[in-house]
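Entry 12.
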Amino acid sequence: MSDVQMNLLNDFQRGFPLTAAPFDILSHRLGMGVEEVLETLRRLTREGVISRIGAVIRPNRIGVSTLAAMAVPAARLAEVAQVVNLHPEINHNYEREHQFNLWLVATASNAAHLDRVLHAIEQETGLPIMRLPMVQDYHIDLGFDLRATVALADRRSMRGPTAKAGFSLDTQDYSLIAAIQDGLPLVARPYAEIGAIAGLTEADVLSRLERLLEQDVIKRFGIVVRHHELGFRANAMVVWNIPDERIDELGRCIGASGLVNLCYQRPRRLPDWPYNLFAMIHGKDRAAVLERLDLVRDQCGLMDFEHEVLFSRHRFKQTGAHYIEAQHEKAA
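Predicted 3D structure (tokens):
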């Protein structure tokens, strides 16, 4: 990958221009023609390097989502993964090294819809699903530093804005979010095209996106890359069993360490799952991930707590989440 392409992917994962002609700004900063920028983005999207250009929604600000896990007999893993993938509400589906070997992220417009999807998968596969909704986040993914050996989320906006009291989305907000769920169209005036889909003017699209960012509904707006295609082929979900009275302290330490991509509190599911603190580390190989894990354990004083490291083995599905359908109808 050329230096210009690397700059394009690395520098516009957040803060993507909210102007009528955003690719003109990319063109000026990268020293490329506008059509060359667009064609590069189209090609990288076709190649699977870019998932989309658009919004990363803060968990549970719109709709609901959960991490979930299944213990699948090895002989049935491919079959069960295929059944899971048929449900559009599943946006991530990974095999990991553990007795619970299939890990899903499911997103739906409301809790009842989410429960129906997971129950349907249980009925279709004959296997139970362990549900692990987020309780508290200590670090939200703000994008990858593609020049590092270990892919780390940008820390500059870690604290983020705080939603104002009384803020709520209206029908047009839901229409806008529905229109951008799959990303911006790669055309010279993408916000005008989004507006035509959502029934809004270009100016209204831009002002509403600004407001959703200010209210922390949209956590990040920019290029969403697929880390595996960019060489970060190792990723581990690290889980700890932390005393409840210390989880905020240690979660904040891990989240602020600069050593992990994500950090969340999730519920224990005893007796099978005693862990309540989760972190993700992505690296170019297992050694890089484990080295970073040792550093965070030492930095945050985690050496004495029970933990497990669940490396990913196979990616069955990775797509952007879809938040809007029944929720939009409800808002209307």
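Annotation: The first helix runs from residue 3 to 11. Residues 95 and 102 are 5 Å apart (CA to CA).
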